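[User]
If only I could read backbone structure tokens as easily as an amino acid sequence. I have put the entry right below:
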Amino acid sequence: MLLFISDIHLTDRTAFQYSLNKDAVKKVFFNNLVSILERRPKVKDLTLVLLGDFFDLIRTKEWWVIRDGNWEPKKVTPWSENQDGIEEIALKILNGIFKNNKSFIEEIKTLPYRLSNKFPKIKFEKIIYIPGNHDRLITLQPLWNVVEGFFENIMLIKNGFFTPKDYKTLAFHGHQLDIFNREEREVPPFGDYTSSLITAIPYLIETEMSIKGFSRDIIESLKKRMLKIDDIRPESEIIPWLLSEAKKEASLKDFFKEFIFKVLEMVTVDPFIRRWVDAHSKEFGIKDELFDLFLRVKGPKIFPLWGAKIFTLRYLERLSNSLRSRDGGDPYVNKLLKACNLEFSEKNMPYEFEIQEHMRDAECIVMGHTHGAKFVPLTSKVFYLNTGTWGKYMTQTISGDGFVSSRNLTFVIIYKEEEYKDRRFELWNVMDNKQ
């Protein structure tokens, strides 16, 4: 039996204080698994798979500072050309994650042994670790030494693709299908930069409001709301969310508009953004319009600055809404279906082609990344299962009239044929609503 979880996003808590309660594993997760195994007497072995973004090495204050009201990436970051000392910084972050999430990580470590003790006939094989986009630095040897030393019986799938024998399954985090979050053309993922910037926004807003003379009470109230930015999914909804927050208080409407434009200006001139866009300029779909706007908006020959502000905000709101999946769809389903049908060529779509090659004999495709737990039958023989997230999840309503929060605890189980012949998999999703 393969047991998949992903997108836990444990952080060092320097930027966001939210952490997962150990009881999520000790009680809820464990009890659900017990109820499953009691009905599956043919299960003889168990492998736990951490399917990416377990340790979040991006959402931290270690990669940036706020100086003179501006957000400034440090000299060495996951996306900088200079990588001297990256291992030491990433190791510091990882140690902070272990320190601030010790009890939760300990529960994950001991979970398979607790299950084996309750079901002596079940053999615990190992823990498999598959890196995602937020924990890609875990493959650095000093970091992996820490993980390996703590978990003991753990294996790293460094290339990111897990094809276990006897399961007809392909598992990967999913960022390989996401041009914004995969490393290619010797350029780091765009998502490293944007996730770090998003992490800093509550603190950048706090600084900006202090400079503009807002009262401390108003600043603290807004900052508390802004710290929820880490929960917004997908991240393309962050701009509509910021604009919806601006509409709640008339006194902040103009401030938000100015702030959003300031951030866009900052992104426009960042050398990494220019480097990334240059490397990917021929590959965008509709999203290239957004980057084209970023790069042109500062040109006074295009339109005056005041006109650019109005145009940019209206354009961004319309574009963000057009990119949203209002039916709850998954942006990667079509790519997975094309891979099933062998439609990708190595020359034109090398990353998709690689996934296609790994999928050839698979009946179950398991991935995370999107934070949306789901089951999609791609064909009558191939099924896609998404492991969702264990974190808070805030998304815009289908009607577009607001944002709603939930907390999830999702997991996927894949069985061998001899373990349960009429059931290949199970997708469990424990969810509650909390504002």
Observations:
- The CA atoms of residues 38 and 153 lie 25 Å apart.
- The first helix runs from residue 23 to 38.
